[in-house]
Request: fold
Amino acid sequence: MIIGVAKEIKTDEYRVALTPAGARELTLAGHRVLIEQGAGVGSSILDADYEANGAVMVDGADDVWSESELLLKVKEPVAAEYARLGAHKNQVLFTYLHLAASRECTTALLAGNNVAIAYETVRLLDNSLPLLTPMSEVAGRMAPLVGAYHLMRPGGGHGTLIAGVPGVAPANVVVIGAGVSGLAAATVAVGLHANVKILDRNLERLRQVDIHFDGRVQTIASTAHSIEEACLDADIVIGAVLVVGAKAPKLVSNELVGRMRQGSVLVDIAVDQGGCFEATRPTTHSNPVFEVNGSIFYCVANMPGAVPATSTRALSNATLPYVLELARHGWRDAVVADDALAEGVNVVNGAVTYGPVADALGLHYTPLRSLL
Reply:
């Protein structure tokens, strides 16, 4: 199979979908790997590193898109790439998609008449998300760090040191959601000596969190009332809510933000899925924050893109086994054999095959099994 890796052109996106090690595995398996020139530079990977591991460097995005049977990306196609979606008949696109939050991208994929498989909805029998997990871990660990910076006066906040000092209390950090990213955020916040509260609707998950932290984190059952109480006492609020494949619920209103401490910071990890704060709108690493009712909002839609040397390798480690399945068997046989991968199929030849996306956008849903 011909496998292509396109250079990411989304603003401030420096990751790449495949490492040289991944290229070597694919070429050893007999596949042809095309890499757009310069695709790995943002992740400190040189073209020569790919070539040394059997990949072929291609000068120009159009050639990569038009020649690849399986196209690998990190982020969803942006407007400048929509015209390329139909360049190769029956092409399979494998990337993060987050379609529930983007009608425009969904419409473009439907018009492209190809197959689109989303990293973020590949789901194992235990409901874990193996291709979302590594980036959730990165974003979660970053959240207290960026929150701590923007809590300082130069970052726009009210000037509190997250760790405090002897005789002066540390910052209060509230994490909404105890999933992978929420747990990662709480771990770093605890390491920074903050006072940490974590909220979730799943009481069993909260029991696990309590055991994990040996009581150092306050666990709270998530309700509208408990979220309000926690936010009013918070210096940093981290939104880490995930509803797989669907839009995130809006849990923090602008009215509530208006009653929070002036100069508090809200970090929305869920921005890719529409965000869990009312005021959330996607920002970039170049212009990451905005102010609402006296508080600072950090809503960068590709947080792991700021640390691509780490993120690229973590992502490729997770995606490579699935890439090998798709390349070896073709997408149809691969998803028939692997229920987890089947969960990732969002669009097939002009049909939406993932229910939460269809529900979020008011589109017709076609069960994947009816197309196999």
The first helix runs from residue 20 to 28.
